[in-house]
């Protein structure tokens, strides 16, 4: 299960064919079934083939991690706040201010049922499984960003594609530095939840913007 030909085939099926298929109009339950089987396969390979555990890492570089993302998060928060003010000021902090219960439910659901699986797939699995296919770590990071954007192509939103590409690059670099699913999931959750908080959730299919 680690020959180059097998890995390339697996790579194509999981990270190109499957995400692209979600852009085609066919039953949602079938899409969910394919996605579920794909995720279970990834968990199986991580555990039985790559021998990777999902327990809490023994050493976590918290201080270095928070220093790394503090400035980036500050820049992102300022830029996105200005963007919402210019594009649709009525959406600014709309959900937390008007629907606080829904707001906290969405934060919880998004963090544990969306962010965590995405980081298992696109960072923990991808980086450990396919790094041997790329001689350059920068190419590995770039491809990861492209594929992470591809996974969101079904939104049919150019801004979403750009944001997920940039996010993919950022999260890939974080994972390469810390080798931690927990830390990269925290970073992903911070940015994703902030977009929802500031008023950009509608383009990412978060509920709550309707009056």
Task: Briefly say what this structure is.
With 211 residues, the protein is mostly helical. It is built from 8 helices and no strands. It is globular.
Could you walk me through the main structural features you see in this protein, from its secondary elements to its overall organization?
The protein is mostly helical and 211 residues long. The protein has one domain. 27% of the residues are buried. The longest helix is centred in the middle third of the chain and has 31 residues. It is 74% helix and 0% strand. α7 packs antiparallel against α8.
Major beta sheet, specifics? none
Beta strands, count: 0
Order of helices and strands: HHHHHHHH
Distance between the termini: 51 Å
Structural class: mainly alpha
What number is the mean pLDDT? 92
Strand content: under 5%
Helix content: over 70%
Domain module tally: 1
* Helical segment count: 8
- Overall 3D shape: globular
- Write down the Rg: 18 Å
């Amino acid at each position: 299960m680690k020959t180059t030909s097998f890995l390339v085939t697996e790579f194509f099926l999981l990270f190109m064919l499957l995400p692209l298929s979600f852009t085609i109009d066919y039953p949602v339950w079938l899409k969910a079934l394919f996605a579920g089987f794909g995720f279970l396969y990834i968990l199986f390979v991580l555990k039985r083939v790559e021998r990777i555990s999902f327990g809490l890492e023994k050493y976590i570089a918290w201080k270095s991690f928070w220093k790394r993302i503090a400035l980036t998060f500050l820049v992102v928060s300022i830029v996105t706040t200005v963007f919402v003010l210019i594009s649709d000021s009525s959406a600014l902090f709309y959900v937390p201010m008007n629907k606080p219960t829904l707001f906290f439910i969405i934060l919880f659901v998004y963090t544990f049922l969306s962010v965590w699986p995405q980081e298992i797939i696109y960072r923990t699995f991808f980086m450990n499984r396919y790094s041997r296919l790329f001689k350059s770590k920068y190419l590995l990071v770039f491809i990861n960003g492209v594929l992470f954007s591809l996974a969101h192509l079904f939104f049919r939103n150019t801004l979403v594609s750009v944001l997920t590409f940039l996010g993919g690059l950022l999260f890939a670099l974080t994972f390469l530095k810390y080798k931690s699913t927990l830390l990269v999931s925290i970073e992903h959750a911070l940015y994703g939840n902030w977009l929802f908080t500031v008023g950009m959730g509608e383009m990412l299919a978060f509920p709550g913007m309707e009056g």
